[in-house]
Write a structure and sequence with these properties.
The protein is built from eight helices and 16 strands. With 350 residues, it is an alpha+beta fold. The chain has three domains: 173 residues, 60s Ribosomal Protein L30, Chain: A (2-Layer Sandwich), CATH 3.30.1330; 48 residues, no CATH class; 100 residues, NADH Oxidase, CATH 3.40.109. The strands form five sheets. A five-stranded mixed sheet has the order 1-12-2-8-9. It has a four-stranded antiparallel sheet with strand order 13-14-16-15, covered by helices on one side. A three-stranded antiparallel sheet has the order 4-5-6. The two termini are 42 Å apart. Keywords: GTP-binding, Ligase, Magnesium, Manganese, Metal-binding, Nucleotide-binding, Potassium.
């Protein structure tokens, strides 16, 4: 990793005039032509950020829009969370392209005709090919970032991030260096390519038809031509480093063995609807001898054939209620109803 600590001056320029990109187009040539139209050219140490949309269009990665759900499932490697909406099921998934994102990155915006675009399965390879072609056309050794747009789990809105990268350090690792107070940094590792992707979006935009941007002032981050760098996939957390593999609802359902229950809606609905979903999840977790869960007003009545089964089913109900932002309070009259409990509910703060 380089010892880059931020330039004193950074220039970011949107490349206008590229126009609509079609299957088979030479994206590198379009970028070079756009630079020339702006009376500019590539120099060693420049970085080019290009929207994944134009990369996908040039690669012919289009599918019929009528099959969008099927395309999303095909481009998904793992479901993280799903919610029902008025128009279908919204899915957050681990995409074939690598990152976790909505609908596996399948997108219909800024696309001509009744089609959707998918992402390249190896975005880093696409960035390497674009870098090599830019060098072939101009002789310049540059860095390339292929950008896409995604939401973030803890913040509203979307931002661009690096889907693919080549010829540039993906992360600036500051661990071991000193901060301005002389303290040693032990955690800080800046995701440089993500920062570049977000900055590029400020000059590219989503509706202005400007799919690429030029950075000048980051030459110490650009790697030699024979070094492609670690790529953007190196930033994707996986295995033990992924603390958030499932949404909170999906995690509880998976632990109960009830992952096959229909996804909850985006809008939770009435208390009655939430109780019915919790009952369905508890019963779907596996057979319980004599097990019954039914709604009684603002509560759920749980019955079973023996004490052990009653306790097991009650615990399932309590866990299922939590996914509906409800806490269950268990009432039991063992003398009158030895094999039944009433689980009353209290709203959790949201």
């Amino acid at each position: 990793m380089s010892a880059h600590h931020g330039p004193g001056h950074l220039q970011v320029v949107g490349l206008t005039g590229i126009g609509e990109v079609h299957d088979g187009d030479d994206v590198a040539a379009l970028v070079v032509d756009a630079l020339h139209a702006q009376r500019a050219s590539l120099s060693d140490g420049d970085v080019i950020a290009v929207s994944s949309k134009v990369v996908s269009k040039a690669a012919g990665l289009a599918a019929a829009a009528v099959d969008r759900d099927e395309v999303v499932l095909r481009e998904s490697r793992r479901l993280v969370a799903a919610r029902r909406t008025p128009t279908g099921v919204a899915r957050i998934v681990e995409s074939a392209a690598g990152p976790v994102m909505a609908a596996a990155g399948v997108d219909a915006s800024n696309v001509e005709g009744d089609v959707v675009l998918t992402l390249p399965h190896d975005p880093d390879a696409a960035a390497r090919e674009l870098r090599a072609r830019l060098h072939e056309l101009t002789g310049a050794v540059v860095g390339v970032v292929v950008t896409d747009t995604a939401g973030r789990p803890w913040r509203a809105g979307q931002t661009d991030f690096a889907l693919g990268a080549a010829g540039i350090d993906a992360v600036e690792d500051l661990r071991g260096s000193l901060d301005t107070s002389g303290r040693e940094l032990s955690v800080t590792a800046r995701a440089v390519v993500d920062e570049l992707a977000a900055a590029a979006d400020l000059v590219k935009g989503k509706a202005e038809g400007v799919p690429a941007a030029l950075f000048r002032g980051l030459a110490d981050l650009v790697l030699p031509l024979d070094d492609p760098g670690p790529g953007a996939r190196s930033l994707v957390r996986s295995g033990a480093s992924d603390w958030f593999r499932l949404g909170h609802v999906e995690a509880v359902r998976a632990a109960l063995g009830a992952g096959g229950v229909e996804p909850p809606p985006v809008v939770p609905g009435t208390l009655t609807e939430r109780l019915d979903r919790a009952a369905a999840v508890a019963l779907a977790a596996g057979p319980v001898t004599g097990g019954v869960v039914r709604r009684e007003g603002p509560a759920l009545r749980v019955e079973a054939a023996d004490e052990f089964s009653l306790g097991a089913l009650t615990q399932r109900v309590l866990a299922a209620l939590w996914t509906e932002f409800l806490v269950g309070l268990v009432d039991r009259d063992a003398d009158r109803e030895p094999l039944a409990v009433l689980v009353r509910t209290v709203e959790l703060p949201r």
